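DM between two lab members

TW: hey, do you still have the Tetratricopeptide repeat protein entry open?
JB: yeah, one sec
JB: this one, 397 aa:
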Amino acid sequence: MKKLALIVALAAMTFGVATAQRSNVKAAFRLSDQSKPDFEQAQMLISAAEENPETMNDPETYYVAAQINENEFRHYLDLQQKGQEVDIKKMYDAALRILPALEKCYELDNTPNANGKVKAKYTKKIQEILKRDITYVYNGGVVFSQSNNQQSALDAFVQYFKIKDLPVCANDPEVSSKDSTTVQIALIVSDLASSLKQPDKALLILQSIKTVPGAECQVLRGEASAYKAQGDTVKYLDLLKEGASKCSDFFFFASLVDLYSTMNKTDEAIKYLDDAIKLDPNNPQLYRVMGDLWAYQKNDTQGAIKWYKKALEIKPDDADFNYAYAMALFNEAADLRSAANVTPAMDQKAMELFKMALPILEKADQLRPNDSKIRYMLKNVYYNLRMMDKYKAMGGE
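TW: and the structure you got?
JB:
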């Protein structure tokens, strides 16, 4: 009889603990929903319920947690709309706590019971909350970005795209739909994620817009940048090559040229630079880069000269282009002069090259006075042309 009484007492105690915890969940909501809310106490009670075995697997716990955070957000929003000054970070931090609570609620609400059946109670309510709050989540990203809190901005924008992709929102086009504006937002945010060294978040966001018509090339570009930030050269190269084969986007070709140059694969770099020139034939920088490839990686000064000349034809008043072309002419002349058996014809050709380089270097010096490398090269041309007065005037001895 005593044993039976003990069992009954223990059962009553267990029931009492469970009931107390469920009461705490309801009390937490009331604290957040009263005329003078106590959000700190409400958060303390609901956090305890999320950790207690009696309530931690109950979807109601997390639905109430979401409600508490929404109440806190809307409390500050209401004050702000009435012209009162509020803690903006605290306001939007509350908004960003809503989604994690709803995700857990949805998971538990859609878990099969002992009979293998799902009896979802909160799914429709979750849809309603997300629908009315997704704009505020986006606004939080904008506000954090404007206040230069880029990490919080990124967290808000990641939530914005997660909400759009949640199965619970799939049948609501007002929430899940994506257009060209969504694509542009995703690209900006993915760049932000990469700049913050969080390429995994960049890839998550880009995945969200992958099926939007017309976004393929932009997604490839963003993914390439993310994998570059991640240090995955193999995947970066694969995406650049895929982009170059599918898209008329200068980014892919320029990036391939840069990558192959770094890898000392000059022929591959030249191949993609040729393609880039076809896309943008009036871009002098492309010809300058091509000249550099021929000059410094293929060690072919004659090959470099024609490319530098083309860059200069397009942009004749650029000091760098003038200097690069003149230096190639100078180096070709120096190579002729330093050969094992210099013939008179070779010496004459060298002098012609020095003479060609002279006005180009003088122009570069005019365009950028006091540039040490330009003046050093110009002084050497004066010396080789036996223009000793000008050579000495520049500090020659």
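TW: got it. The mean pLDDT is 90. The two ends are 118 Å apart (CA to CA).
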